[in-house]
Specification:
The structure holds two protein chains of two kinds. Chain A is of the alpha+beta class. Chain A contains six helices and six strands; from the N terminus they run H-E-E-H-H-E-E-H-E-E-H-H. In chain A, strands 3-4-2-1-5-6 form a six-stranded mixed sheet. Chain B is of the alpha+beta class. Chain B has a single domain, classed as Glutaredoxin (3-Layer(aba) Sandwich). In chain B, a hairpin with a 5-residue loop joins strand 3 and strand 4. In chain B, helix 3 crosses helix 4. Chain B is globular. The relative contact order of chain B is 0.17. The chains are: A alpha+beta, B alpha+beta.
């Protein structure tokens, strides 16, 4: 994957397929040296311990259209090649938490990419899910809850184009205010 | 920073437009967005579809993502599904091809044969 936002797009769809109705994506940067951490938490059906154990193996997948599952192994690889750590926890019928860390200044750290656009696409494609996004660094904190947006909209769908535009702009402003200057690639 | 209060104005604007086209049958564009699709550039493709449709003020087309449909070597893949059920499968897409599909298939009703899976498999 070329950037972190693409990993997020990919991993979040595991949560969707696990029938989660609440998915939280948190992106934080803190510490000296600064560590970027991405955590995706869902309340989906979770995994059995024996499946969880082999889930970072590319030849493990729950899908039937092909025999390999590369989403999780690729994220693990991206984290580890840049000196970061990958971890996954899961409890059957409770949910799954995937987390990956990336030392910000490591030469092999892939850029974050267009996070706002990616998250907006997830919302637009799965509007029934209660998405929650958290961005935090030492300079700012931003939280977005689709549930709040839905309440404010009433009978207007979150897939409406004006709403989507607003969501993307809101996320983009939040992201830049939290990570501008903290990450080299964000203004 | 933007606030949730702005949504009130957006809501009004959306409601005005909604009533006109509530009962229209929608064409759907479905973009494969599993690991294979994403790695091949499906996100830019999906974004190009959305942008081009918005730019042309086309409202009766839904763009959505789906998982892997099992032919990963042809990614990025998108299917255009018309209200009558007719389905065209486009393969090896990029943003530019996506815009052409909007112009020729969605607007003018002529599928872009050279981008279809039929043409790719020859």
């Amino acid at each position: 994957m070329k950037d972190l936002s693409l990993h997020i797009l990919d991993i979040a769809q595991n949560s969707v397929r696990a029938e989660a109705d609440h998915i939280t994506i948190s992106i934080t940067a803190e510490g000296r040296p600064c560590i970027l951490k991405i955590v995706i938490t869902d309340n989906g059906k979770g995994m059995e311990p024996d499946f969880l154990e082999k889930v970072t193996d590319p030849f493990t997948t729950s899908r039937e259209t092909r025999k390999v599952g590369l989403g999780i192994p690729l994220l693990k690889q991206s984290a580890e090649m840049a000196g970061g750590v990958f971890s996954i926890k899961s409890v059957v019928n409770e949910g799954t938490e995937v987390s990956a860390t990336f030392p910000v200044d490591h030469v092999d750290r892939i850029p974050v990419g267009n996070v706002a656009e990616t998250l907006m696409m997830l919302v637009a494609s799965h509007p029934e899910i209660d998405w929650e996004f958290i961005f935090a660094s030492e300079q700012d904190r931003f939280e977005f809850s689709l549930t709040e947006v839905k309440e404010a909209l009433g009978d207007v769908s979150v897939t409406n184009r004006y709403v989507q535009e607003w969501i993307q702009n809101t996320l983009s402003e939040g992201f830049n205010s939290v990570f501008g200057g903290v990450l080299d690639e964000v203004n | 920073m933007k606030s949730i209060k702005e949504l009130e104005a957006i809501r009004e604007r959306a409601l005005k437009e909604m009533s006109i086209r509530d009962n229209e049958n929608k064409t759907r564009i479905v973009v494969g967005m599993a690991t294979c699709g994403i790695a091949a550039g499906a996100r830019q493709v999906m974004n190009a579809f959305v942008e081009e449709l918005n730019k042309r003020n086309i409202h009766n087309v839904n763009v959505a993502m789906t998982g892997c449909i099992g032919i990963c070597r042809f990614e990025p893949i998108a299917e255009v599904i018309e209200p009558n059920g007719e389905k065209t499968t486009y393969v090896k897409l990029n943003a530019e091809k996506a815009r052409r599909i909007v112009a020729e298939h969605i607007v003018n009703g002529r599928p872009v044969m050279e981008f279809t899976i039929g043409a790719a498999e020859k």
